[in-house]
Design brief:
This is DUF3486 family protein. The protein is mainly alpha-helical. It is about 65% helix and about 0% strand. The radius of gyration is 19 Å and the shape is globular. The two termini are about 30 Å apart. Bound molecules: zinc ion.
């Protein structure tokens, strides 16, 4: 599984590094050392440091356990779901669409559960941030039509909840629609 799309944790240097994909492949054992064995943590740390990323074994472990593994888990679940739906309906469902559906369902559930009027500004911003992060994940999908469909639903929910035009403009921006 080489193209995992998962949200970057804002405070994790590895998530936010351009070396993330390569580091992930090393952590997963998909990428081996020149002599054909798995990379050890201290070797990955040294490799990253040579390329300008100040990191440590502790930071690599945190990234692996808290960000990379949950993303792998979610990807596997999506795959299983796609497989189950295909078998049940006899129709092929694209992974992109299945993934979009899962993210959308989660985002809408969060937004729906909110009693928007009773939230303070901080809480509203946090809710919007979740929507934006879901959008960011989806915007990495190739499929513009799926993205458009999801963005339209999120936008409608946000407007009903009373989000301002400025917020909706930002949502559209994150989804790559403007
Ligand atoms: Zn991370």
């Amino acid at each position: 599984m080489s193209d995992l799309f998962y949200p970057r944790e804002p405070r994790c240097k590895i998530c936010n590094s351009p070396l993330r994909d390569e580091i992930d492949q090393m952590l997963l054992g998909n990428e081996l050392t020149p002599d054909g064995r798995r990379w050890r943590m201290e070797e990955i740390a040294a490799w990253a440091q040579q390329r300008g990323l100040e990191t440590s074994i502790a930071a690599l472990s945190r990234h692996k356990n808290n960000h990379l593994h949950p993303a792998m888990q979610a990807a596997l679940e999506t795959e299983r779901m796609v497989e189950a739906i295909s078998q049940a309906t006899g129709r092929k469902l694209s992974v992109a669409r299945a993934y979009a559906n899962a993210v959308l369902a989660k985002t809408l559930r969060v937004l729906d559960d909110l009693d928007w009027q009773s939230l303070d500004d901080n809480q509203r911003l946090r809710a919007i941030d979740r929507g934006l992060r879901a959008g960011e994940v989806l915007s990495r999908l190739e499929r513009a039509d799926v993205r458009l469909e999801v963005a339209a639903k999120v936008e409608a929910t946000l407007s009903e909840a009373g989000a301002s035009a400025e917020i909706i403009r930002r949502v559209r921006e994150v989804y790559g629609l403007d």
